[in-house]
Amino acid sequence: MAQALVADHGGVVPQTMAALLTLPGVGRKTANVILGNAYGINDGITVDTHETRLSRLLGLTRHEDPIRIEQDLMTLFPRDHWALLSHLLIFHGRQICIARRPRCAECVLSDLCPSSSV
Questions:
Q1: Which of 13, 30, 83, 117 has the fewest CB atoms found within 10 Å of its own CB?
Q2: How far apart are CA 45 and CA 28, in angstroms?
Q3: What is the pLDDT of residues 26-73, one digit of tens each?
Q4: Of 8, 29, 43, 80, which is the active-site residue?
């Protein structure tokens, strides 16, 4: 990837989804992280295991494919919040909605969550 970055982009990390996706090992998730965090460009929503699990539990999507989940989330949240949304979902998944032991009683979303045990 580093060789392609130097050879094809003069050693500068590209600022577009299309250019990032040409780099070996870079998919939509990584490209969204780079664009959102390094450049402040909200071109999409990063979907990792936490976002996948929480999006389904919260009833924001019925899909399991990260691209379809990303598309569903993009219609639900304002574009200028997409990078932040990813961080918030990851944090929530690690601190409150833990996969094997969710803390629904402490969750601020429990009254909205169709999966809540409260």
A1: 117
A2: 9
A3: 999 999 999 999 999 999 999 999 899 999 999 999 999 999 999 999
A4: 29
Looking at 1-118, list the stretches that DSSP marks H as alpha helix, in order from N- to C-terminal side. 2-9, 17-21, 28-33, 49-57, 66-76, 82-95
29 is catalytic: yes
Could you give the 3-state DSSP secondary structure of residue 29?
A: helix
Amino acid at 85: L
Q: What is the DSSP string of 30-45?
A: HHHHIIIIIS---SS-
| Residue 80 falls in the annotated catalytic set | no
Q: Which of 8, 48, 72, 111 is catalytic?
A: 48
What six digits make up the tokens of 19? 């250019």
